[in-house]
Write a structure and sequence with these properties.
The protein is built from 27 helices and 16 strands. A hairpin with a 4-residue loop joins β3 and β4. α14 packs across α15, α17 crosses α19 and α21 packs across α26. The chain is globular and about 90 Å long. The two termini are 43 Å apart.
């Protein structure tokens, strides 16, 4: 990843007005000092997506997406930070310092660039051939598959000529040498045959990375020939296990999940039918690399594999890989048709959407497939099935989740939930499950095991609410400080960054207080860029956009602010008191001093009219 100094990052950010940038992607309407629009990161009918010119930040009150101008491009375009920097710098006319590279790194970068050029040239050539007289058979094939001109253009489909050295001769005329062509995956060179093409007489499917750069091809033979489908070999720019067909288009979908298919035509047919969230692996089984790539774009994947035996096996292999990556999976049932392409041609997009809506939970799918291995009419077979199902249920480490699935399996197979729970707990003990499973076994006959109230549970819940309430108070106070920096002078004697006891909030407060002390102003958008972790950036954006509930009168607003300040301070004193070493006399005296300051806080009068930004909105 390229290194950029804080100064150049801030220069690019400050010269990239967030309203101008986001307006290229989202229609925004001004309401007061803030702009609103429909969130590009989730489906909604009312605009809860806000963009603040003052803060130079965006935040969605619906889904929680938020950040600065860099974060937006990283979320929307799935750019790395370096890519977002380069894009915004070019737009703002900022010259980025050249990153130092040694000779080997420069040579490697140049080689990758040339390999990408070759793939692009090949894609343009194949696309041109499809529209020529030589490509009529392939064009007829695409037409027969029901593809429109727009879809053919959108996916850049093409044709490789029947002559086996056609592309080789074309690329040589373009000035590419044998040595680089050999590494492109498009051409083979040997002493007997010279240069010859990897793909010839095939309908061509360009494979693009997430940024839309062609990195390889798939080809379907026209007429007789083997293999029927052929993919580019792996090269320096093409890794099958880390790329997905169609992801360059699907990454911009507003749908909450991605549809994972087996083949190119399935992806294309789904996109043409309006399902712009379809992708496929590249002639290989799903890998952990694919799952990690999917995780960057979604938390839920719907498997729409072929409905035959091979498709079922592929789904069973994919489910644990997705689960390991933290992705929830569901299975779309396409019977009596084989694949999405056939299904949509026969029944249409509306029927396919119904199958999506009724997709099967992946665990229940696994149980259903498991059932087929046993004779459920035979008591011995049925018992064996229940024992295997119990083993699978033991895979859920969380008691609540396990109990929910126990109830679901019990309902489906008309079992007593308590009987199945007892079997699962017994199985878990035999398998060496942790203490939680044994605790569940001891309580399996009690109402508490079914989620009934236990002594102490209500208290735990109330404790969580108190914790969430304190987090909210700290968020509110930071939001107030951003919207009305004059408040620093009023409360700075009483409130310091260490009073924000949540670790992330404390870090943000340190930066905010330091900014005001140094310049008399605050720059929340700059603080977002100080956090590399995407989840932290999101939380910081949420932190600086807490909802300040409107109240009827100025007096009520002043009271709400004062009470928030007091809550934050009281919590800070309590936390430090709990952690204080009894022998730490200096720390003890400091706490005594702060408790006295707390008494003054209770009498502090904050006049809204005296501090810009605090007036009733």
């Amino acid at each position: 990843m390229p290194y950029f100094s804080d100064e150049i990052i801030e220069e690019v950010r400050s010269r990239s007005d967030i309203v101008d940038v986001i307006s290229q992607y989202v229609r925004l309407t001004r309401k007061g000092s803030t702009y609103f629009g429909l969130c590009p990161f989730h489906n909604e009918k009312t605009g809860s997506f806000s963009v603040s010119p003052n803060k130079q930040m965006y935040y969605c009150f619906g889904c929680g997406a938020g950040g600065n101008v860099f974060t937006f491009l990283m979320q929307y375009e799935n750019f790395t930070f370096g890519e977002a920097m380069e894009t915004l710098a070019e737009r703002a006319g900022v010259q980025l310092p050249k990153q130092e590279q040694n000779a080997a790194q420069r040579a490697e970068a140049d080689r990758r660039a040339r390999l990408l050029e070759i793939q692009k040239e090949a894609a343009k050539y194949f696309y041109m051939l499809l529209r020529s007289e030589r490509g009529q058979q392939a064009l007829a094939y695409f037409r027969k598959r029901g593809l429109s001109d727009e879809t053919i253009r959108k996916f850049g489909l093409g044709y490789s000529d029947q002559y086996s050295d056609d592309l080789y001769r074309y690329l040589r005329q373009k000035g590419y040498e044998d040595e680089i062509l050999k590494d492109s995956g498009l051409v083979a060179i040997d002493e007997r045959r010279g240069g010859h093409d990897k793909f010839w007489n095939r309908a061509m499917f360009p494979i693009m990375d997430v940024r839309g750069k062609v990195i390889g091809f798939g080809g379907r033979v026209m007429g007789e020939g083997e293999p029927k489908y052929l993919n580019s070999p792996e090269t320096k720019i093409f890794d099958k296990s880390r790329n997905l067909y169609g992801l360059n288009l699907a990454r911009s979908t507003k749908k909450q999940q991605l549809l994972l298919c087996e083949g190119y035509m399935d992806v294309i047919a789904l996109h043409q039918a309006g399902f712009d969230n379809a992708v496929a692996s590249l002639g290989t089984s799903l890998t952990s690399g694919h799952a990690n790539l999917l995780k960057r774009y979604t938390k839920e994947v719907y498997l729409t594999y072929d409905s035959d035996g091979a498709g079922v096996k592929a789904a069973l292999r994919a489910i644990p890989i997705l689960k390991e990556a933290g992705i929830a999976a569901k299975i779309i049932n396409m019977q009596p048709y084989k694949d999405p392409d056939e299904f949509i041609k026969a029944l249409g997009a509306e029927a396919y959407q119904e199958r999506i809506d009724n997709a099967e939970n992946s665990f229940m799918f696994e149980i259903r497939i498991l059932e087929k291995q046993y004779n459920m009419q035979d008591p011995e077979g049925k018992t064996a099935f229940y024992n295997e199902a119990a083993k699978k249920l033991c895979g859920f480490s969380e008691k609540l989740e396990r109990d929910n699935y126990i109830d679901a399996v019990a309902r489906k197979y008309m079992l007593g939930a308590e009987d199945l729970r007892r079997l699962v707990n017994q199985t878990g003990m035999k398998m060496g499950l942790a203490k939680d499973a044994r605790g569940s076994a001891r309580g399996s006959g009690a109402a508490a095991a079914d989620g009934g109230a236990r002594p102490g549970n209500g208290g735990a819940g109330r404790g969580r609410k108190r914790e969430d309430g304190m987090r909210q108070s700290q968020k509110l106070l930071l939001t107030w400080l951003i919207e009305a920096p004059g408040l620093f002078d009023k409360i700075g004697t009483y409130i310091t960054p260490k009073d924000f006891t949540e670790e992330l909030y404390g870090k943000a407060a340190e930066q905010l207080f330091a900014q005001y002390e140094k310049t008399g102003e605050v720059n929340p958008a700059r603080i977002v860029s100080m956090f590399e972790n995407e989840e932290e950036q999101r939380e910081i954006a949420e932190l600086f956009n807490a909802r300040i509930h409107e109240v009827e009168t100025k007096e009520d607003r002043e009271k709400a602010l004062r009470e928030t300040i007091i809550r934050v301070k009281e919590n800070s004193i309590k936390c430090r008191g709990d952690a204080l070493d009894p022998a730490d006399m200096e720390g003890l005296m400091e706490l005594v001093s702060e408790k006295k300051a707390l008494e003054k806080l209770g009498k502090l009068h904050i006049a809204m009219d005296e501090i810009p930004g605090l007036g009733t909105k």
